[in-house]
Structures are given as C-alpha cells and as structure tokens.
From TrEMBL:
It is an enzyme of class 2 (transferase). SUPFAM superfamilies: Actin-like ATPase domain. It comes from Roseibium aggregatum. GO terms for biological process: glycolytic process. ATP binds at A17, D18, I19, G20, G21, T22. It catalyses: D-glucose + ATP = D-glucose 6-phosphate + ADP + H(+). Belongs to the bacterial glucokinase family. It is found in: Cytoplasm. One of its GO terms (molecular function) is glucokinase activity. The keyword Cytoplasm applies. Keywords: ATP-binding, Cytoplasm, Glycolysis, Kinase, Nucleotide-binding, Transferase. This is Glucokinase. HAMAP family: Glucokinase (MF_00524). InterPro entries: ATPase_NBD, Bacterial_glucokinase, Glucokinase.
C-alpha cells in the first residue's frame, strides 16, 4: 500500500456517496470552503447501477455538474469492478467516468470514510459517555455495530491524519463477569469461535438473545435486532438483559481497541444498533467495562468515548477529505481512476 500525503486538490464540485446494501446517499462539496450539500437518498434496488441513481437523484438539481466522485462502499476495493456485498450493484469507476463526464473517481472503504469524519466532529455531532478528555492530534478509533461490526483507526503521524480500516470487528470475544461465564456456553458458535461481530451487530443480536434466553430459562423467539430493541423498550426481561450484556461486551471491545492504538483522541460509536440502545450505553455498564483494563484503569478513565449523532458520518468524512485532501494520508493505490486511464491508479 502507498500511504503518501495528498498534494493536489480535487476538481470541484465533488460528489460524495455512501453506498450501502440497502440505500445510497449522496452529497456535494462545491469548493474547498463550502459546507456539505445533501442531495438525497435512494434505494439501491430502485436503480440498475450507480450511474443511473446519480442521474436521477443528483444531476437534475445540480449545476455545474460534479467533476470528481469519492465513493464509500462496504467491503474491499479490488480491481476495476467492485461488487457490493449486500446489493446487486457493481461499481465500475471507468464506466462512471464515461457515463457522467467525470474527471476522476475514488473508491474507499465505508469505515475509512467514518474515520475521515472523526477529526471534524464538534458540538451536537457527538454525545460523550462517561469521563475523559480528547487529547488533540492523538489517535482516534471508530466502532460501528450495524448489520456487521465495522472498525477503523485514525492515526495522527507526521502532522497528518492517516485512516486505517481493517476487519477489527472479527476479534475474539470471551466472557469476563460471572454472568458472562454463565451465558457464554449457551451462545451458538460460528466456525468454532465467537468473534465480536457474531454478537455485537444487528445480525448477532438474535444469537446473543437466544443465549440469554436459554441462560434465563425463558422462551423467546427474537429473530431481528429491531424485535429485541422494541421488546427492551417494553421492559421485556430477556431483551433488557441481552442489551445489558451487549453494552458491556461492546465496552470491552472498545476498550481493547483504545489500548491497541492508545486512542487518546477518543473512541466513537456509530452504526444503526448504537442509535437504538442509547440508554444501555449511558447507564454505566458500557463505560465500566471500557475502563476495566487492569493495570491501566487510570489511563482508560482519561480516554473519552462518544456516541456519534451526526446523521451521515460517512458522507461527512468523505466531504472532509474532498475539502482538504492535504490533511489526510489516504491509500490511493488501485482506488483512484481518472479520465483517459485504462485501470485504477497505482
């Protein structure tokens, strides 16, 4: 990989896009000083490809037309054809350039985009959970329980922010408290192991709930994360216990990552599950588990944790990069295409 500081600005306007398995969100950055201008959201299933979605959702309301597109996708960026994991679209940057008259297309990982947003958060963008103070120009970490468990670091080095995506959501997750030890044998293993994503995600929550129900000797049939969070709002004891265990486990994993990169700039929680379980993240269990890292409890108490309240964090991260590419060292190898090239830039 080539991590070098970007020295040129992009051709404006820049279209930024967050492409998920269900929805695609678009915004525009008109110049280096302009705020992010939202253009709308559309279901990926409503369009045969990204170019047609942009033509319908973005271009009718935009003049001048975008010259650069920076896109975030869930999954690795490999080659000139990038299939989406949970949708029928295949992102083809060279086809986008031809279809839309673009000068350049850049495709990044979705949690890389989330990491790019971290240095710019302020005010109501984030809600602090527990103690700690942000140390400026220090490493940050973002963790996002959604459909899966996304994770990325933002490292500050050589006066530059360096986003580092990865597959941190698949780290091991074992029991710690006596209650955990009693619950864990009831949780279904996946591939002979229990990774964090297999519990700490929308798809993992029903697995955790089945284990909790068995531990409690209760008969429940929660099949979706939404059914669990809804039941918890009605104080169903199995659902409440499930989310208490979930929050503690998320705190432990978040604390592990904070130690791994010494995230004195904070750990930030995003993702669709996070927004549905605020009371379980702020009742003390999450933060206590985060700090319980002997012999480093005093250090952990100084590292702040936040719930991200910004409605479109990935788009905002891409927009921050579009406005000030020189502030970030982003891996562009094989992920940057320009008009007139035959393949991704190396």
């Amino acid at each position: 990989m080539s991590f070098s500081k970007n020295t040129k600005s992009f051709a404006y306007p820049v279209l930024v896009a967050d492409i998920g398995g269900t929805n695609a969100r678009f915004a525009l950055v008109d110049d280096a000083e302009a705020p992010t201008r939202m253009c709308g959201k559309t279901a990926t299933a409503d369009h045969p490809d990204i170019s047609s979605a942009i033509r319908e959702v973005v271009l009718p309301e935009t003049d001048p037309k975008p010259r650069t597109a920076i896109i975030a996708v869930a999954g690795p960026v490999t080659g000139d054809r990038i299939p989406l994991t949970n949708a029928a679209w295949v992102i083809e940057p060279l086809k986008m350039i031809a279809d839309l008259g673009l000068d350049e297309v850049i495709v990044l990982n979705d949690f890389e985009a989330q990491a790019l947003a971290l240095p710019g958060y302020s005010g109501s963008d984030i809600e602090q959970v527990g103690s700690g103070t942000i140390r400026e120009e220090s490493a940050k970490f973002v963790l996002g329980p959604g459909t899966g468990l996304g994770a990325a670091a933002m490292i500050y080095a050589a006066q530059t922010w360096v986003p580092v995506p990865g597959e941190g959501g698949h780290v091991e997750l074992g029991p710690v408290t006596p209650e955990d030890v009693a619950i864990w044998p009831h949780i279904e293993l996946v591939g002979g192991r229990l990774g964090a994503e297999q519990i700490l995600s929308g798809t993992g929550l029903p697995r955790l709930a089945r284990g909790v129900a068995a531990y409690m000797g209760a008969d429940r049939d929660f099949t979706t994360a939404a059914s669990i969070t809804t039941a918890a709002e009605e104080n169903d004891p199995v659902a409440v216990k499930t989310l208490e265990v979930f929050a503690r486990a998320l705190g432990r994993v978040a604390g592990d990552f904070a130690l791994a990169v010494l995230a004195r700039g904070g750990v930030y929680l995003t993702g669709g599950v996070t927004s549905r379980i605020t009371r379980f993240l702020t009742d003390g269990g999450f933060r206590a588990a985060f700090e319980a890292k002997a012999p480093h409890e005093a250090l952990m108490a100084k590292i702040p944790t936040f719930i991200v309240r910004h409605p479109d964090p990935a788009l905002e991260g891409l927009a921050s990069f579009a406005r000030a590419p020189e502030a970030f060292a982003v891996d562009m190898q094989g992920r940057q295409w320009t008009a007139g090239t035959a393949s991704g830039a190396s």
